Amino acid sequence: MKFAEEVVVEEFLPTFRSMLAEDLRERGLTQSEVADALGISQSAVSKYAHGDVAQNDRIRDDERVSRLVTEVGEGLATGSMSQVQALVEVEVLIRRLEDHDLIAQLHEEAMPELAGHGGDFNVHDPDDELRATERVLSSMRRGIHIVEGTSGFTSLIPAVGSNLCESLPNAESIDDVAGIPGRIFDVKGRATIPADPEFGVSAHVASLLLAARDNGADVHAALNVRYDPDIVARLESAGHVTAEFDAEYDDLGEAVGTALDESPDATVLYHTGGYGIEPIVYILGDSAEAVAEVARKIV
Protein backbone atom coordinates (compact mmCIF):
# COMPACT_ATOMS: atom_id res chain seq x y z
CA MET A 1 0.00 0.00 0.00
CA LYS A 2 1.39 3.38 -1.05
CA PHE A 3 -0.05 6.76 -0.18
CA ALA A 4 -0.16 9.77 -2.49
CA GLU A 5 1.88 11.61 0.14
CA GLU A 6 4.70 9.13 -0.46
CA VAL A 7 4.72 10.07 -4.14
CA VAL A 8 4.98 13.70 -3.07
CA VAL A 9 7.82 13.03 -0.60
CA GLU A 10 9.77 10.52 -2.67
CA GLU A 11 9.33 11.94 -6.17
CA PHE A 12 7.84 15.43 -6.32
CA LEU A 13 9.78 17.17 -3.53
CA PRO A 14 13.26 15.88 -4.48
CA THR A 15 12.62 16.89 -8.10
CA PHE A 16 11.21 20.30 -7.21
CA ARG A 17 13.96 21.07 -4.69
CA SER A 18 16.63 20.03 -7.17
CA MET A 19 15.13 22.31 -9.82
CA LEU A 20 14.77 25.18 -7.36
CA ALA A 21 18.31 24.80 -6.02
CA GLU A 22 19.58 24.82 -9.61
CA ASP A 23 17.52 27.93 -10.40
CA LEU A 24 18.80 29.81 -7.34
CA ARG A 25 22.41 28.89 -8.06
CA GLU A 26 21.97 30.19 -11.63
CA ARG A 27 20.71 33.46 -10.13
CA GLY A 28 24.03 33.86 -8.34
CA LEU A 29 23.18 32.67 -4.82
CA THR A 30 25.89 30.87 -2.90
CA GLN A 31 25.41 27.33 -1.64
CA SER A 32 24.91 28.73 1.84
CA GLU A 33 22.29 31.24 0.64
CA VAL A 34 20.44 28.52 -1.24
CA ALA A 35 20.41 26.38 1.90
CA ASP A 36 18.97 29.27 3.92
CA ALA A 37 16.35 30.04 1.27
CA LEU A 38 15.17 26.43 1.10
CA GLY A 39 15.56 25.68 4.80
CA ILE A 40 17.84 22.70 4.17
CA SER A 41 21.46 21.86 4.92
CA GLN A 42 24.38 22.85 2.70
CA SER A 43 25.19 19.17 2.25
CA ALA A 44 21.69 18.64 0.85
CA VAL A 45 22.21 21.54 -1.56
CA SER A 46 25.50 19.96 -2.63
CA LYS A 47 23.73 16.68 -3.39
CA TYR A 48 21.13 18.47 -5.48
CA ALA A 49 23.84 20.41 -7.32
CA HIS A 50 25.84 17.27 -8.14
CA GLY A 51 22.84 15.27 -9.31
CA ASP A 52 23.02 12.84 -6.40
CA VAL A 53 19.26 13.09 -5.87
CA ALA A 54 17.00 11.11 -8.19
CA GLN A 55 14.50 13.18 -10.16
CA ASN A 56 11.27 12.23 -11.86
CA ASP A 57 11.47 13.33 -15.50
CA ARG A 58 7.69 13.60 -15.88
CA ILE A 59 7.57 16.03 -12.96
CA ARG A 60 10.63 17.94 -14.18
CA ASP A 61 9.16 18.30 -17.68
CA ASP A 62 5.76 19.49 -16.47
CA GLU A 63 5.29 23.13 -17.59
CA ARG A 64 3.44 24.09 -14.40
CA VAL A 65 6.28 22.81 -12.25
CA SER A 66 8.88 24.63 -14.33
CA ARG A 67 6.88 27.85 -14.22
CA LEU A 68 6.51 27.69 -10.44
CA VAL A 69 10.23 26.98 -9.99
CA THR A 70 10.97 30.16 -11.95
CA GLU A 71 8.44 32.24 -9.97
CA VAL A 72 9.60 30.96 -6.59
CA GLY A 73 13.27 31.24 -7.56
CA GLU A 74 12.85 34.87 -8.57
CA GLY A 75 10.79 35.65 -5.48
CA LEU A 76 13.25 34.10 -3.02
CA ALA A 77 16.28 35.57 -4.79
CA THR A 78 14.89 39.13 -4.81
CA GLY A 79 13.15 38.93 -1.44
CA SER A 80 9.75 39.68 -3.00
CA MET A 81 8.43 36.30 -1.85
CA SER A 82 8.58 34.99 1.70
CA GLN A 83 9.25 31.36 2.58
CA VAL A 84 5.64 31.11 3.74
CA GLN A 85 4.38 32.40 0.38
CA ALA A 86 6.68 29.96 -1.45
CA LEU A 87 5.43 27.10 0.72
CA VAL A 88 1.79 28.03 0.05
CA GLU A 89 2.33 28.23 -3.71
CA VAL A 90 4.06 24.84 -3.81
CA GLU A 91 1.39 23.28 -1.58
CA VAL A 92 -1.36 24.58 -3.88
CA LEU A 93 0.36 23.10 -6.93
CA ILE A 94 0.81 19.77 -5.15
CA ARG A 95 -2.89 19.62 -4.29
CA ARG A 96 -3.84 20.44 -7.86
CA LEU A 97 -1.54 17.72 -9.18
CA GLU A 98 -3.10 15.26 -6.73
CA ASP A 99 -6.58 16.02 -8.05
CA HIS A 100 -6.96 13.78 -11.13
CA ASP A 101 -3.59 15.02 -12.38
CA LEU A 102 0.09 14.11 -12.52
CA ILE A 103 0.61 13.02 -8.91
CA ALA A 104 -2.64 11.05 -9.04
CA GLN A 105 -1.38 9.34 -12.19
CA LEU A 106 1.96 8.46 -10.58
CA HIS A 107 0.06 7.21 -7.55
CA GLU A 108 -2.14 4.98 -9.73
CA GLU A 109 0.94 3.52 -11.40
CA ALA A 110 2.40 2.69 -7.99
CA MET A 111 -0.98 1.33 -6.85
CA PRO A 112 -2.67 -0.31 -9.85
CA GLU A 113 -5.66 -1.09 -7.64
CA LEU A 114 -6.53 2.63 -7.84
CA ALA A 115 -6.84 2.61 -11.64
CA GLY A 116 -10.00 4.42 -12.70
CA HIS A 117 -10.50 6.23 -9.39
CA GLY A 118 -8.30 9.22 -10.25
CA GLY A 119 -6.98 9.83 -6.75
CA ASP A 120 -9.05 12.86 -5.77
CA PHE A 121 -7.08 14.40 -2.88
CA ASN A 122 -8.02 18.05 -3.37
CA VAL A 123 -8.05 18.93 0.33
CA HIS A 124 -6.65 22.47 0.06
CA ASP A 125 -8.60 25.44 -1.26
CA PRO A 126 -6.32 27.41 -3.64
CA ASP A 127 -8.15 30.61 -2.74
CA ASP A 128 -8.09 30.31 1.03
CA GLU A 129 -7.32 33.21 3.34
CA LEU A 130 -3.66 32.30 3.91
CA ARG A 131 -2.91 32.25 0.23
CA ALA A 132 -4.73 35.55 -0.38
CA THR A 133 -2.88 37.18 2.52
CA GLU A 134 0.52 35.97 1.35
CA ARG A 135 -0.22 37.07 -2.22
CA VAL A 136 -0.93 40.61 -1.01
CA LEU A 137 2.22 40.72 1.14
CA SER A 138 4.27 39.37 -1.77
CA SER A 139 2.87 42.08 -4.06
CA MET A 140 3.64 44.67 -1.39
CA ARG A 141 7.25 43.52 -1.20
CA ARG A 142 7.57 43.79 -4.98
CA GLY A 143 6.08 47.29 -4.83
CA ILE A 144 8.49 48.29 -2.08
CA HIS A 145 11.38 46.96 -4.18
CA ILE A 146 10.31 49.27 -7.03
CA VAL A 147 10.05 52.26 -4.68
CA GLU A 148 13.46 51.64 -3.15
CA GLY A 149 15.02 51.19 -6.58
CA THR A 150 13.49 54.31 -8.15
CA SER A 151 15.96 57.15 -8.37
CA GLY A 152 14.27 60.39 -7.41
CA PHE A 153 11.25 58.81 -5.76
CA THR A 154 11.73 61.14 -2.82
CA SER A 155 10.61 64.01 -5.06
CA LEU A 156 7.10 62.48 -4.88
CA ILE A 157 6.93 62.11 -1.09
CA PRO A 158 4.64 64.64 0.64
CA ALA A 159 5.48 66.18 4.01
CA VAL A 160 3.17 63.70 5.76
CA GLY A 161 4.98 60.80 4.10
CA SER A 162 3.79 58.29 1.52
CA ASN A 163 2.23 54.91 2.05
CA LEU A 164 1.73 51.99 -0.28
CA CYS A 165 -1.29 49.77 0.36
CA GLU A 166 -2.96 46.70 -1.07
CA SER A 167 -6.21 45.09 0.02
CA LEU A 168 -7.48 41.55 0.22
CA PRO A 169 -10.01 40.72 -2.54
CA ASN A 170 -13.02 41.15 -0.22
CA ALA A 171 -11.61 43.83 2.08
CA GLU A 172 -14.11 45.48 4.42
CA SER A 173 -11.91 47.36 6.90
CA ILE A 174 -8.36 48.69 7.25
CA ASP A 175 -7.45 45.40 8.93
CA ASP A 176 -7.92 43.84 5.49
CA VAL A 177 -5.44 46.26 3.90
CA ALA A 178 -1.66 45.80 4.05
CA GLY A 179 0.53 48.87 4.30
CA ILE A 180 3.93 50.07 5.47
CA PRO A 181 4.21 50.73 9.22
CA GLY A 182 5.33 54.30 9.79
CA ARG A 183 4.98 55.29 6.09
CA ILE A 184 7.68 56.02 3.52
CA PHE A 185 9.84 59.05 4.32
CA ASP A 186 12.70 60.94 2.68
CA VAL A 187 15.82 60.27 4.74
CA LYS A 188 18.86 62.01 3.30
CA GLY A 189 17.54 61.78 -0.22
CA ARG A 190 16.47 58.15 -0.08
CA ALA A 191 13.02 56.64 0.14
CA THR A 192 13.16 54.85 3.48
CA ILE A 193 10.91 51.89 4.32
CA PRO A 194 10.89 51.57 8.13
CA ALA A 195 9.47 48.03 8.38
CA ASP A 196 8.03 45.10 6.47
CA PRO A 197 4.42 45.44 5.25
CA GLU A 198 1.64 44.50 7.66
CA PHE A 199 -2.12 44.47 7.69
CA GLY A 200 -4.01 47.20 9.53
CA VAL A 201 -1.18 49.72 9.79
CA SER A 202 -2.37 52.37 7.33
CA ALA A 203 -5.44 54.30 8.41
CA HIS A 204 -5.39 57.15 5.90
CA VAL A 205 -4.41 55.64 2.53
CA ALA A 206 -6.21 52.40 3.37
CA SER A 207 -9.39 54.36 4.12
CA LEU A 208 -9.14 56.18 0.79
CA LEU A 209 -8.65 52.86 -1.01
CA LEU A 210 -11.64 51.30 0.75
CA ALA A 211 -13.77 54.37 -0.02
CA ALA A 212 -12.89 54.09 -3.71
CA ARG A 213 -13.74 50.39 -3.71
CA ASP A 214 -17.01 51.00 -1.87
CA ASN A 215 -17.95 53.47 -4.59
CA GLY A 216 -17.44 51.04 -7.44
CA ALA A 217 -13.76 51.44 -8.31
CA ASP A 218 -12.25 48.10 -9.36
CA VAL A 219 -8.94 48.70 -7.56
CA HIS A 220 -6.95 46.87 -4.90
CA ALA A 221 -4.00 49.15 -4.20
CA ALA A 222 -3.12 52.79 -3.58
CA LEU A 223 -0.08 55.02 -3.20
CA ASN A 224 -0.19 58.64 -2.06
CA VAL A 225 2.27 61.20 -3.44
CA ARG A 226 2.56 64.95 -3.13
CA TYR A 227 0.21 67.17 -5.10
CA ASP A 228 1.57 69.29 -7.89
CA PRO A 229 -0.30 70.32 -11.06
CA ASP A 230 2.64 69.00 -13.08
CA ILE A 231 2.41 65.58 -11.39
CA VAL A 232 -1.31 65.40 -12.20
CA ALA A 233 -0.55 66.43 -15.78
CA ARG A 234 2.12 63.73 -16.10
CA LEU A 235 -0.33 61.11 -14.87
CA GLU A 236 -2.94 62.31 -17.34
CA SER A 237 -0.37 62.22 -20.16
CA ALA A 238 0.37 58.62 -19.18
CA GLY A 239 -3.29 57.78 -19.82
CA HIS A 240 -4.74 57.97 -16.31
CA VAL A 241 -8.15 59.49 -15.69
CA THR A 242 -7.99 61.90 -12.77
CA ALA A 243 -10.69 63.19 -10.44
CA GLU A 244 -10.57 65.90 -7.80
CA PHE A 245 -12.38 65.69 -4.47
CA ASP A 246 -12.87 68.13 -1.62
CA ALA A 247 -10.13 67.96 1.01
CA GLU A 248 -12.37 69.41 3.72
CA TYR A 249 -14.84 66.56 3.71
CA ASP A 250 -17.07 65.45 6.57
CA ASP A 251 -17.39 61.98 5.06
CA LEU A 252 -14.52 60.52 3.01
CA GLY A 253 -16.74 57.95 1.33
CA GLU A 254 -19.17 60.64 0.21
CA ALA A 255 -16.38 62.91 -1.09
CA VAL A 256 -14.73 60.09 -3.03
CA GLY A 257 -18.11 58.86 -4.26
CA THR A 258 -18.95 62.30 -5.69
CA ALA A 259 -15.61 62.40 -7.55
CA LEU A 260 -16.09 58.89 -8.94
CA ASP A 261 -19.67 59.64 -9.97
CA GLU A 262 -18.29 62.39 -12.20
CA SER A 263 -15.30 60.31 -13.40
CA PRO A 264 -16.06 56.60 -12.87
CA ASP A 265 -12.92 55.48 -14.71
CA ALA A 266 -10.59 57.55 -12.54
CA THR A 267 -7.43 55.80 -11.34
CA VAL A 268 -6.00 58.97 -9.81
CA LEU A 269 -7.80 60.91 -7.08
CA TYR A 270 -6.45 64.17 -5.68
CA HIS A 271 -7.31 67.20 -3.63
CA THR A 272 -5.62 70.58 -3.49
CA GLY A 273 -5.61 70.86 0.26
CA GLY A 274 -7.36 73.09 2.74
CA TYR A 275 -6.78 74.84 6.05
CA GLY A 276 -4.08 72.75 7.76
CA ILE A 277 -4.50 70.00 5.13
CA GLU A 278 -1.65 69.15 2.77
CA PRO A 279 -2.69 68.59 -0.88
CA ILE A 280 -2.27 64.95 -1.93
CA VAL A 281 -2.51 62.73 -5.02
CA TYR A 282 -3.62 59.11 -4.71
CA ILE A 283 -2.63 56.62 -7.42
CA LEU A 284 -4.99 53.63 -7.59
CA GLY A 285 -4.43 50.30 -9.32
CA ASP A 286 -4.68 46.52 -9.39
CA SER A 287 -1.72 45.86 -7.09
CA ALA A 288 0.98 47.51 -5.00
CA GLU A 289 3.47 46.57 -7.67
CA ALA A 290 1.35 48.24 -10.37
CA VAL A 291 0.88 51.57 -8.57
CA ALA A 292 4.55 51.71 -7.61
CA GLU A 293 5.40 51.23 -11.27
CA VAL A 294 3.09 54.12 -12.21
CA ALA A 295 4.93 56.34 -9.72
CA ARG A 296 8.29 55.22 -11.07
CA LYS A 297 7.33 56.34 -14.57
CA ILE A 298 6.39 59.89 -13.56
CA VAL A 299 9.48 60.68 -11.49
From TrEMBL:
InterPro entries: Aldolase_II/adducin_N_sf, Cro/C1-type_HTH, Lambda_DNA-bd_dom_sf, ThiN
Superkingdom of the source species: Archaea
Residue span(s) of domain HTH cro/C1-type: 20-48
PROSITE patterns found in the cross-reference section: HTH_CROC1
Pfam families xref list: HTH_3, ThiN
Record has DNA-binding as a keyword: no
Alphabetized GO MF terms: DNA binding; kinase activity
Keywords attached to this entry: Kinase, Transferase
Protein name: Phosphomethylpyrimidine kinase
Natural source organism: Haladaptatus paucihalophilus DX253
Classification lineage: Archaea, Methanobacteriati, Methanobacteriota, Stenosarchaea group, Halobacteria
